[in-house]
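User: Fold this; tokens only.

Assistant: Input:
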Amino acid sequence: MSRPETLQPGSHPEGVDRADTAPIGRHETFMHLKAFFLTAVGSATSGERRYHLWMGALTLVMLLGGYAYYVQLRDGLAVTGMTDHVSWGLYISNFAFLVGLAAAAMMVVLPAYIFDDVDFGQAVLMAEGVAVSALVMCLAFVVVDLGNPFASWHLIPGVGLLNWPRSLLAWDVIVLNGYLALNLAIPFYLLYSRFTGRKPEKGKYVPWIYIAVFWAVSIHLVTAFLFAGLPARPFWHNALLGPRFLASAFAAGPAFMILLLWFIRSNTEYEVGDSAFAKLAMITAVAAQVNLIMLGSEVFTEFYFFTHHAVSAQYLFFGLDGHNALVPWIWGAIILNLGATAVLTIHPLRRDPRWLMPACLLLFLAIWTEKGMGMVIPGFVPSPLGEIVEYSPTWVELAVTAGIWAMGLFILTVLARVALPIELGKVRSPYLAPSPDRSTSVVGGATPVPIEGTERPATSPSSGPDRPAPRPPPPGPRKSSDPVIQGILWLGVYLGLVLAPLAALVIAPTPPGGGFWWDVAIGLGFSGLVMMGIQFFLTARFRRAAAPFGIDIIYYFHRMLAYALVAFVVGHPVILIAINPALASYLNPFTAPLEMTAGTASLLLLLALVGASAFRKQLGIPYEWWRLTHLVAGIAAVALAFAHILPIAHYTGVPIIRGLWIVIGLTLAGVVLWVRVVRPWTLLRRPYRVAEVRPDRGESWILSLEPDGHTGFRFEPGQFAWVTLSASPFAMREHPFSFASSPSPEGQLEFAIKELGDFTRTVGRFTPGEVAYVDGPYGSFTVDRHPDAPGYVFLAGGIGIAPVVSMLRALAERGDTRPHVLLTAHSEWDRIPLRDEVQGLSERLNLNVVHVLEKSSEEWTGETGWITPEVLDRHLPGNRSDLVYFVCGPVPMLRAMERFLAELGIPSSKVHSELFDLV
């Protein structure tokens, strides 16, 4: 059926210009949200070459960090430099610094939102982006420091086993996640309001600003108390620790903001005034001075009267018993801190970018060193027993840290990329009505394009003087949820299910001789098995899962995934044998253990199943036999795969992993039971009867069905159903056909069926009164999903005219007067199915019908050959970019029409197609 509904610029009814305070209906809200999301995705994925190089470099660093984290998960925290003596290292050092960076956004948010400072208003969204990125990195560093990420659920109060509310760590997790939620919600509301052309209501966001200001202070104080509350670590027993945390944060945060805003001003059209830099620089200077004063106070307190509490400080600043790993770092940080603070304190230097930018960079690095390694590590040296064990990070820690920082910069870049065009006014919702002061719209965050269709002609090219002017139709069914968001969520569920079994590689003990490629091979096998099982879901026709995509896309996805599945499953033994050639002996069924033979048999069955499906028509396999063997072979392949993995104790001996596989197996069994028993039984209770079978042109038949003892079901015009004729619904003899009729209150159904295969050639033999069963409706190829379009263009080839006629019939019954265009492609005039019906509908609708014939007679004066861009250009109206297009026909025609429409400048979001070959 059609693709997921996507952005439709200019679809708002003409003449409507909403006031800033006008209410927005639920349907329109979903449309705006969808447009906002798609625009954000477009902005984040488009850009000049240097943008893609930057994002690519960050991605490579993240991949390196991901591999290092995999090594840490595989081998444990022993691969880090942390020990029982120094149990916090580079991870917690970065965590402590980033908490401050996140809290520093308050220094911009407070004057911008509360005191309406115009200068800070230019920087506030970037400050919110910095806070979000820093908080994500904070939580990531907490997770990697846990060692086992599956223990993180203990951090959830009331759910985990953490000692809450006594545990300060639990409080820290609460305030961090709460502050993250606030910094996501507030800027989203402001950007969304600007995107939809509405003025933000202060009552909806200002109270949350006050809460966020309080929360910003709390996240840093709670983190400081987390250190100060450890009784065995006297280095952190300091009343100034919390205030110093804040002072260093309010120095490093604005310093980073200055660097970021300067980069944005130098490389984008977003203007940040000099006064904003001057105010941020002043805040940075004052905070840096206070931070130095507090540092000096701590040093005086520790060393004026030297006590045993100063031993850690002695190690940090001067070394202890020959151990001095941190001495050059802390003194280097102090020198950088003093130099940067001096530059920021001198007014003329602070106003000169040539001095200001280096000073901010040096201050940022100095506070990162002083507050990270210089504050965390000395708390553990010496230990409570007086032992001195020094710490230095390993390559794993360095790579993981670099990967998390790259992730934070990646997120910050995406947020900036999305926010700046909206702030500049270049991006607005395409559902806004055109107005004199709003003449451009941006789709996908790309180049501004004019809004077309602001002055549409009263009639189409085929309209006559007796035709009324177009008017919007009665509203069709409105969907209460967004198919784009639904589709993304379902894809996320799919990826989650495929990746879930990989937890066995983390939880299960590492087998002897295991390594990276060994784990890759095992992961391919586990994921391949889950993909085999999900194939049953994809063909089970669950309407909720199929709705965002259309059942044809789901079946096409099923078909394409089969090839990826084969690659996964074949890669599993190939890699294992490449690592250890002796494993090739397991391929011999006479000597191999039973579980290995089961795996080999599963692989061979899978290859036979996919091969038979790919070449079914060439091999001449009847459809019914193929369906039966496809189901039986699929079940057998999955069952044998389970028999292969469950006896392998290395990965399934852990109870939680074994339980996971059992749940997966039972779920798959339930799906098969539903598809082959429950649903056929429900169909058996709601039979239909053949009302009429009549021949039509082009070796096609019109099949009419009427409900027998029930009222039938409602469907949307253009949808389709699976039909079983003169057989039990358990017999696996169902075939998919599109409705040719419009929705009927009496439940009557009509299908146009062309003789293309073994079954369709027998349709003419059925007689009225024979029993039939209908499983439907399915699909999203319908005008009812796009009710606000100014008109529709239908492109049909062969029997693909059937769902088009269904939609035209529905439009005619609703009294629709908008201009529509229908172009059909057929071999000859006398072989056009439903030709008389189309002619009658052209008299009831404002419909321009264009038949394109491959073979024509001398009397034919219409279009000949194929539907080409030139043919389309001749018959599409001037507002063609505003119309919604429906394409149905053979796959080659579908691909050609999509390409031709793109050449004519029709947005792909306006084109909806139906794959005509489901099996």
